[in-house]
Amino acid sequence: MEARNEKKISTLLLKQGMYVSNLDRPWLDTPFLLQGFLVRDDDEIMLLKKYCEHVYIDLDRGIDADDHTHGISKYKTNKKLERFLQDGECEFEYVNTKTAGEEMPMARKAIDEASRKIADIMEDVKRGKSLDYKTIKEIVEPILDSVIRNPEAMMWLTHMRQKEVYTYAHSVDNCAIAAAFGRHMGLPKDDLRTVAIGLLLMDVGKMRVPEAILNKSGALTDDEFRVARSHVAHSVDILSKIKGLNADIINIALTHHERFDGSGYPGGLVGLETPVYGRMAAIIDCYDAMTSKRPYGDPVSAYAALQEIYNWRNKYFQDELVEQFLQCMGAFPTGSLVEMHSGEVGIVTSQNKTRRMSPKVMLVLDKKKQPFSEYKVIDLMEPPEEDAEPLVIYRGLDPGSFGIDPASFYL
Known about the structure:
alpha+beta
């Protein structure tokens, strides 16, 4: 029997005119009547995406996938950022032009308006409406400007505010953290905008996934898990139709579930095969998910989340990127709840770049875990008063510890 000229591709790369000769699962497990067929319309493509992550195409009986705009062979990365991760030479160094306190009102307005507008956008997607790049940019720009002036206020708010709808809040938080992470690594504003928009919209395809699956509190079945993972294909499809959106933004949506060791999806990319923005997005997505309340789990402390990410370096995430993320967020990220060696409990209000273990902390509970009559912000880098013991953070706390709800401090 003559060997077929077959090629394995992700179902994200499917298009009309391809001949599907085999699947990544038995044909009998799918609704397809023929074991091999020419793809003729978008309905067949969506059905293949629903049931399969990869398929095999016969190049003698249909077209190839090499010319697809977002194919693996077309992935581009930010070469300047890649060099920075190896030699540490920053392209651009930002200087705070506002204190965290001065920036807080503008940061609060930016994140509140973004949360409201992204909810409207997601509902539009559910109704089948197309998205407008100008509207998306208007959401991101105030967040971007706030982070450029001083990222601390925005980082505080991503921890403090109430998150009534996880998917929407997760998108806005991802956007803000991405801007802060990119700023830390010296990305110019145009590149910051790209990563911020990419992180804001990378999960837009979840609007095409049944809510019963997205909000399920228990473990997903294999079929449900496959449907949940199809949000990547939906995101790429939605974003590809937005005029003015660059390929880097679309590829963030395509690659943010890839993992450094090749265990991710949908492409099983290994190491630097994933563009650097996708590698950044994977870390940010994981961090914000762990520190947020989700249908299937309670949040962990920011400190615990960073420890877990550190343990996953060179397994799920690139070592150099993990190191930069930890430097950006601090050992105890802004907005996180901490307990001092002396017993007081506080909330981290801002970072000290030169000493990440010694941030500024607002004390809210005394040594006996009773509320202070007045909250006092202390700088752990400053020497203690005469005869007083220096204050040192003992551990990070999970949200809600000792009855403290950090969101109640979002005024």
